[in-house]
Design a protein that fits this description.
By secondary structure, the chain is an alpha/beta fold. It contains seven helices and five strands; from the N terminus they run βααααβαβαββα. 43% of the residues lie in helices and 18% in strands.
C-alpha cells in the first residue's frame, strides 16, 4: 500500500531521480525506465531538484515514487488539486494506464469529472459518513 499525500511529500533538495530511487523496491515491476516512459517530463527533468518542479511535475514524481515501491493499492489524496487543466488531463491519462496495468487505486477527489474518468465505484462522504454509493454508470446517471 502506498500513499501519495495531498502535499506530495517531495524531497525538495534531492533530484527527480534521487526522489524516485528513494522509493524503489528491488523486486518492483515498476523500474526507473517505466516511470520515465509513463511520465516523460520527469526524464527530461531527472537532474533537477524536487523543489524546482512545477506542481504537476511534483505530482507525477510523487506517483512515480509510489509506483517504484510496487504497491498493490495506490492511495491518492486530491492528486489534481490546484493543477492546470492540461496537466490534470495528463495525470488522469497516466492514472488510467496505471489502473489498466493492474494497480488498484483508492482516490480521494472533489473533481467529479476526474472521479468519473477513473473510478469503478463512488462513495460520497459527508461529515465522516457515507451518504451515497454507486457504480460509475449509476453515478453518472
Amino acid at each position: 500500500v502506498c500513499l501519495v499525500p495531498e502535499h506530495r511529500g517531495i524531497f525538495r533538495l534531492l533530484t527527480v531521480e534521487e526522489n524516485l530511487l528513494l522509493g524503489q523496491r528491488r523486486q518492483s515491476p515498476w523500474q526507473l525506465a517505466d516511470i520515465y516512459r509513463i511520465f516523460p517530463r520527469l526524464k527530461e527533468r531527472r537532474t533537477n531538484g524536487g523543489g524546482q518542479l512545477s506542481g504537476g511535475e511534483q505530482q507525477m514524481l510523487a506517483i512515480g515514487r509510489a509506483l517504484m515501491n510496487a504497491p498493490r493499492l495506490l492511495m491518492l489524496d486530491e492528486p489534481v488539486e490546484g493543477l492546470a487543466p492540461v496537466i490534470v488531463e495528463e495525470i488522469v491519462s497516466q492514472l488510467q494506464a496505471i489502473k489498466a496495468a493492474g494497480v488498484a487505486i483508492l482516490l480521494v477527489e472533489q473533481n467529479l469529472e476526474v472521479c468519473t474518468q477513473l473510478a469503478d465505484r463512488h462513495y460520497i462522504i459527508e461529515q465522516g459518513a457515507v451518504v451515497h454509493e454507486a457504480r460509475n454508470a449509476d453515478f453518472l446517471a
